[in-house]
Amino acid sequence: MFSHSMSVAPMPVRMVASLRVFIVDDEPVIREGLRRVLGKMDGVELVGEFSTGAEAIEAVLSRPPDLVLLDIQLPDCTGLDVVRQIGPARMPMVIFVTAYDEYALKAFDLNAVDYLLKPFDEERLARSIERARSRTALNQHSLLSSHLRELLKAQEQFGPQRLVVRNGERYDFVPLDTIDWIESADNYVKIHCGPKALLLHETLTSLEAKLDPRRFARIHRQRIINLSRLVAIHPILNGTYELELRSGIRLSSGRQYKDSIQAMLRQA
User: Fold this and answer.
1) What DSSP string runs through 141-154?
2) Backbone dihedral region of 87: left (phi > 0), alpha (psi from -120 to 50 degrees) or beta?
3) Hey, is 232 helix, strand or coil?
4) CATH assignment of 179-267?
């Protein structure tokens, strides 16, 4: 046994006068709700609100806050794309605001990245803010950067298994395996699942980047098909084709996709 005790100096803690926060979400109702709750908290300063990924990236790089409340699904990209563009080493602390499914939430949990599930709970938000404040005080940025890198790596390896689509006052979870084809509709995409069609606030190009190219193929600047639904390819003229799906629908290809469709035929 020791005859005397040794005193240990406490770890130095950086005092945080005020936590500077960005909100990044394309839904005005969600932004208003977050703004209202943050306004009740002492030591929290809302210093920016943005509705697109491009705006958020520019703002974070030019005047980084301490914390970003970041929506996963933005009109022009995903929240993970924002982190990827900024870089985990330069990304401030982040709390993802998400309507994602169980698979994605598990990825956040495994990589120790905080998230807030829509519709958000005020108590959960308060706990997340306090965790962020503590991490800032303890200078844990390098550890958080590592967590974000691992999350990006996991996302690149597996990709999404379901899409989350706003449908009135609820969110529909759409398994990728149920999708027949997807078409562009201005700044939205229309997702066709049998007789059902759902609108997702995302561009076709942004969505294409998230989908596994082994499972989905773009055949036209306005159309993507689920390859598991493809039953026949009908040549037309000048390097264009009609692609017949299991449902019986035939979708024409664009001339610029001639090579990729011929590659489908060779691989088959």
Assistant:
1) HHHHHHHHHHHHHH
2) left
3) strand
4) 2.40.50.1020
Please give the pLDDT value at position 117: 81
What superfamily in CATH does domain 19-158 come from?
A: Response regulator (3.40.50.2300)
* Neighbour count for residue 37 (Cβ, 10 Å): 17
As a whole number of angstroms, the distance between CA 17 and CA 159 comes to 39
E strand or H helix that includes residue 69: strand 67-71
Domain ranges of the chain: 19-158, 179-267
- CB of 52 within 8 A of CB of 18? no
What is the per-residue pLDDT for 70? 92
Interatomic CA distance for residues 34 and 13, integer angstroms: 28
Q: Two tokens at 130? A: 């306090």
Residue of 51, 2, 53, 43 whose CA lies nearest to 19: 43
List, in order, residues 6 or more apart from 243 with CB less than 8 Å away.
219, 225, 230, 232, 233, 234, 250, 251, 252, 253, 261
To 10 degrees, what angle do helices 53-62 and 79-86 make? 30
Identity (one letter) of the amino acid at 248? G
Q: Which residues contact 219 (CB under 8 A, 6 or more apart)?
A: 225, 241, 243, 251, 253, 254, 257, 260, 261
Adjacent-strand bridge partners of 54: none
pLDDT along the chain (268 residues), means of 10: 38 59 93 94 94 93 94 80 88 83 58 74 89 76 78 66 81 86 93 92 88 88 94 91 94 92 82
